[in-house]
Structure to design on (274 residues):
């Protein structure tokens, strides 16, 4: 547990620094997310034993690297069109030797990871004046909820949440995680309101709580979804890059669905009103 806490705090601090740097040079977000997405795709392809199949890996790797770089421009549509097209062209050409289950695995996992995490970049460019707040909110909710679920489950967990997919997750842990996510979102907002906001923002705290609660549920779905992928691949973690946590994808799986949710939610139900 000590190693998990140290690596978690250190990693969060590093991510926060990169996010702050991105406020001065927005392209940092594109580059950082592009690297993270690529590593996550490599990890999940390794888990699925298709990383050495260049027919699937090359177009998927290209998409994972290019889409986050292009998503802040009008050219993202080109990448979104060419990636599935190239995969299906390859399927037609290699129909005798390339099984559809591998194709489905590649396009589903790579597509979900790339598009989901790229929403962090979209958050940066959609509201420049509050981009750091929304980006940190999209990351803080799932990560704080995950930490809260871990500790609540360790101390109070009795009823299994989804034993066939993730035996250690409990209902009590999930509830604790949701509460922690709400508290984390409130603390983050209070800090921003005290030190960063210009004092002309009206904070909709009720909408913030709703966002944090639903975002926490969405983060659990993301976590369980990629746990199911791990279970089907018969592995424990996607890697060992982060001591006590596993691979990069093990830390980002919940953000894959939470970032798009935050992006959609604040578009229709703004947290900050000038």
């Amino acid at each position: 547990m000590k190693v998990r806490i140290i690596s978690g705090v250190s990693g969060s601090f590093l991510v926060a620094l990169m996010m702050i740097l991105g406020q001065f040079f927005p392209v940092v977000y594109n580059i950082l997310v592009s690297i993270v997405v690529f590593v996550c795709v490599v990890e999940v392809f390794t888990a699925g034993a298709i990383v050495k199949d260049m027919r699937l890996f090359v177009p998927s790797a290209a998409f994972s690297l290019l889409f986050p770089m292009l998503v802040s421009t009008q050219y993202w549509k080109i990448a979104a069109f060419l990636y599935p097209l190239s995969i299906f062209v390859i399927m037609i050409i290699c129909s005798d030797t390339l099984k559809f289950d591998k194709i489905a695995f590649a396009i589903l996992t790579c597509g979900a990871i790339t598009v989901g995490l790229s929403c962090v970049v979209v958050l940066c460019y959609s509201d420049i004046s509050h981009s750091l707040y929304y980006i940190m909110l999209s990351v803080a909710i799932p990560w704080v909820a995950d930490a809260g679920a871990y500790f609540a489950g360790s101390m109070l967990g009795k009823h299994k949440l989804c034993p066939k997919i993730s035996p250690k997750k409990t209902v009590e842990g999930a509830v604790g995680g949701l509460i922690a996510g709400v508290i984390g979102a409130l603390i983050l907002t209070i800090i921003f309101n005290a030190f960063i906001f210009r004092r002309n923002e009206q904070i909709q705290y009720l909408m913030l709580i709703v966002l944090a609660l639903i975002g926490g549920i969405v983060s659990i779905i993301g976590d369980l979804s990629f746990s199911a992928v791990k279970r089907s691949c018969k592995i424990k973690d996607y890697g060992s890059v982060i001591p006590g946590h596993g691979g990069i994808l093990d830390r980002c799986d919940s953000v894959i669905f939470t970032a798009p949710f935050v992006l959609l939610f604040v578009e229709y139900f703004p947290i900050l009103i000038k």
Remarks:
- Confidence is low (pLDDT under 50) at residues 1-8.
- Residues 222 and 257 are 6 Å apart (CA to CA).
- The first strand starts at residue 160 and ends at 162.
